[in-house]
């Protein structure tokens, strides 16, 4: 539902309503009705890959009985303003108003018609300029417009509104005006009811582009996020784009402090001063007489604004666009590209040569360029430069398309002709963005725009296969573990390539993701990992002690490594194996694990595992067999309290094993002496 729909619904007719002008809200109606879709419960779970036929872009026509041709239109913060050929301005608050306000712009015979209107982001300040340079100011609920005497004779082509303005401050704060003659002025407008007081607190020319007859078709400025007094200004003509970076005094903090009045120094004067001699610009020659400059920011809410991230400039050769990077240098415009306009075939003669038609107007969304032509509207995806939408604009005989206008605060888009209005509805613009980023191998960005697990799985699978094909097996293992590719298929991939390190990483990741109930899978994978760890540790140990290069059985990652490299990697892997045992010893079969570790001759790892599972008898007997009484007693003493006899506890272990009794017979005296010493030590210790 469009904003006009909301407006109409809020304007129910009643007997008590009276309208002060013929353009009542009841005059507006939709050209067609919307039908809500009916969702059926089918039990089908979508994978997210089915073709979505819902249109991202669609035209929503609004019928309004214009008594006179429409000259210009602007929409800001849900307030719509329309300028008619008869010098009337119609203003509608799409959220609250119950009527259309009709304001007449005073003029004398021969002063010319309205040329353009400009709306600030808050929807409170409206500036009207005429063909002969008469300028008028209309503030919020004023019923009459005031002439801006200081701007007499200035035809305004563009305005850079202050991004720091707010609804709590009645003034515009310092703004920049671009004129038809290539001049840039600075002023601050503050509404007043005093007839003898001017709304322009001051007016100062701050720059001239020195291009004879070249209008300033686009003007915009932004505050650097990390430097409140540093600003970036960009200005365009039909063939050039200029950028200015410098310090502006008196704006930081959201007020107009530092502006001392008519004779005071303008806050942008110092910023422009250093560009008087050598201005920086990019030129795209052409014979186009019109041009537009647009910026996009994800955060345009009046209470939480962010700086613009991208821009688009309509030029003769195409759309010049790029990013904005607010760093420490004197250039903010970055990663620029020129997108030629798409070719258009003849509707009447299919055999005619296609031509690239220059749009009348453009708009910039987060992911698309919207191009308005004399009879149609198109949308081009920024990620692949493909036309994703095209629709003819219904025109009566003798009617013509004017241009696009954008409500940047509410992110709505409007197309108007000299007799009609259409809202360009944008629905789920980011629907297919994940797929486009995936096609461009921008995997992390693609994940950010995924809407469901199925789409995320597609990204992980594609990324894993891509890295595997590149030979980046460790990275591939990471993303295979996040995907739903069958376990057996992935494991076989790494086994066939003899990539045991990647296989180990994959198995570890899969083990971490298994649920508590998946006991069988956990036992199998954990046991397999024990074998893989031990084999790789022994392999590295052999490489470290060998002075000859590795043979063909050793993975290529080991080629060229020194003995020290192998030793370091071996120690790292041993530490990793111990951490693994600490985490997953509960999912390992005791006897099987003992046999695996023993078969590889890894005594330290065997003792570590036995300690983890509480098999202290095995640890003690190992130290006895090694005649390391100190270690045996150390382990034993940790298991017996002071109130018990260590000696009798020790002897209670022997009846279960003949070999151990023989050991006791051979070494009993030594063990007894060591135990007695330990008992004595424990007795006298504090």
From TrEMBL:
Keyword annotations of the record: Metal-binding, Zinc, Zinc-finger
One function term, GO molecular function aspect: zinc ion binding
Pfam families: Pep3_Vps18
Gene Ontology cellular component annotations, sorted alphabetically: endosome; HOPS complex
Ranges where the Pep3/Vps18 beta-propeller domain occurs: 56-426
Cited InterPro entries: Pep3/Vps18_beta-prop, WD40_repeat_dom_sf
An annotated GO BP: vesicle docking involved in exocytosis
SUPFAM superfamilies to which the protein is assigned, alphabetical: WD40 repeat-like
Protein name as catalogued: Pep3/Vps18/deep orange family-domain-containing protein
Organism listed in the record: Jimgerdemannia flammicorona
